[in-house]
Amino acid sequence: MTTTPPNSGINDIVANNYGKIKAIREKGIDPFPHRFKTTHRIGEAAKLAPETAVTVAGRMVLMRVMGKATFAHLKDGTGKIQIYVKRDSVGEEAYELFKKQMNVGDFLGVEGKLFLTKTGELTVDAAKLTVLSKSVRPLPEKFHGLTDSESRYRDRYLDLISNDEVREIFVKRSRIVAALREVLNGEGLLEVETPVLCGQAGGASARPFITFHNAYKNELYMRIALELPLKKLLIGGFQGAYEIGRVFRNEGVDTRHNPEFTMVEAYKAYSDYHGMAELVEKLFERFIQVIGKDTVDYNGQKISLKPPFRRLSLPDEWKRVTGEDIHNILDGKRFNRPKLVELAKRIHIECGPDTTSAKIFDRILDDKILCELQQPTFVFDHPTAITPLAKCKPGDECLVERFEFFAGTEEIANAYTELNDPEDQKGRLLEQLRQQQEENNGEADILDKDFIVAMEYGMPPMGGIGIGIDRITMLLTGNPSIREVILFPLLRPDQQ
Questions:
Q1: Which residues pair with 264 in a beta bridge?
Q2: I need a labelling partner for 69 at 20 to 30 A (CA). Which of 28, 343, 344, 426 fits?
Q3: How many H helices and E strands in the chain?
């Protein structure tokens, strides 16, 4: 008794198509030529008048053979157009090769004149065909209807072929980044590049990825933020600088987090966190132009993108939802852990003896305040205990000049009036070190002595901001999953 291998159908198709490639070559035709010169992209050709001569190229996505003539559709990144291939026009040999050896999925070049069919569809009357790339594997049928989203992410190229909406998300993402650059350049900020591999992973509260450098025989860290090198550039005399770059954090994977993601961080001398809030609103004014609308549907909510945005005081909101002053859980630049734990238990927030103070605070913040922030909102003035790189509010060492910007309950941006006092900065980072040691807080910021030395040469007052490119794209395209806006998100290893 014999059994049919599970992939025998695909294997037969692949073998058959390799046979077609061989047959094409035997006729002296290269099925994978080096180049092809077009006169128009398909989207441009589709706007021209009948009788216009065009040369276009694209992937064949539909083929209807009708004896001595065939209708087909070609598609590229700009659009789709019908072609009409007639034996009397292209010649018998070329037509037979097209009809017998070409399939949906192949790339073709077509020369001919445009005409309107009886149904009014603009079509290329093919005078010459050129094989540009013979596909071997068939395109999946109804790929966009698959319920297994992980397959879409793993084989993103098939997702892009089959789903115009997916491709449009990434076109918009590219335009969003271009608009971001336009605004930041207009602010007089210089775009720069800083190291991805670092001797220390500072600038944020996160666990880093660790690698090893063979030449110097030492461990290196993948950066978790862009902050510290950019600040050094302002110490060096730049009036402002920004970087759009990849950042790596050794954290879980869910609809809001990917261990490798894209951020922009920007710093402007002589500004502060109010200046950064104005910058956010300028960016959104430009983003509205990019997407062509000032509202989006996000996670079941209609979100207005039109500035000005609501501004909230975290201390005021804290008192509203907990019934007590935020200073009660703060002891200067530290948390008052016993009072923080007492509050958490009173308002039914989960915490245990091993839960760090920072984590307890975040849970209260998330469950009682941030979950309500559907419309774009700035939340100003956060505890010093969890913000070691921002300046304290004048006369109040418990709070710093920091805002987080939310929309659809997601954090979109984080901004400070940057701390430029080296003595204060050293003390703050030593407090982070204490949290690491006493509370086993592996996400606390590190003490970067080189950065302190740089600050001691004099650092101008400045405002700084970090914006998640993935998060902003999620919002502007109405996609609540980060995997929908990252071309190749990190997935579990394929077990097949």
A1: 244, 467
A2: 28
A3: 15, 21
Tokens 């018998």 -> residue: 92
Q: What is the pLDDT along the chain (496 residues), one digit of tens a residue?
A: 344 444 558 899 999 999 999 999 999 999 999 999 999 999 999 999 999 999 999 999 999 999 899 999 999 999 999 999 999 999 999 999 999 999 999 999 999 999 999 999 999 999 999 999 999 999 877 544 444 678 889 999 999 998 899 999 999 999 999 999 999 999 999 999 999 999 888 878 789 999 999 999 999 999 999 999 999 999 999 999 999 999 999 988 888 899 999 999 999 999 999 999 999 999 999 999 999 999 999 999 999 999 999 999 999 999 999 999 999 999 999 999 999 999 999 999 999 999 999 999 999 999 999 999 999 999 999 999 999 999 999 999 999 999 999 999 999 999 999 999 999 999 998 888 887 787 776 666 667 889 999 999 999 999 999 999 999 999 999 999 999 999 999 998 876 5
Position 249, amino acid: R
* Phi, psi angles (nearest 5°) of residue 455: -60, -30
Task: Please say whether the beta carbons of 242 and 192 come within 8 A.
Answer: yes
Identical topology for domains 12-133 and 162-484 = no
Q: How far apart are CA 102 and CA 114, in angstroms?
A: 22
Category of 232 on φ-ψ map: left (φ > 0), alpha (ψ -120 to 50) or beta: alpha
Question: What is the distance between the alpha carbons of residues 14 and 138, in angstroms, rounded to a whole number?
Answer: 8
Neighbours of 183 (CB within 10 A): 17
Integer Cα distance of 284 and 307 in angstroms = 7
How far CA 330 is from CA of 326, 355, 380, 424, in Å, comes to 7, 17, 17, 18
What class has domain 12-133? Answer: mainly beta
| Residue type for position 170 | F
Which token pair is 104? 């949906």
Q: How far is CA 405 from CA 1, 84, 290, 397, 471, in A?
A: 66, 54, 20, 22, 11
Query: 47 Cβ partners below 8 Å, 6+ apart?
Result: none
The DSSP secondary structure of 69-81, one letter per residue, reads EEEEEEEETTEEE
Which among 175, 232, 174, 182 is positioned nearest to 202, based on CA atoms? 232
Domain range list for the chain: 12-133, 162-484
- Scanning 46-91, the segments in alpha helix (DSSP H) are 87-90
Q: CB of 305 within 8 A of CB of 289?
A: no
Tell me 27's DSSP state.
Answer: T
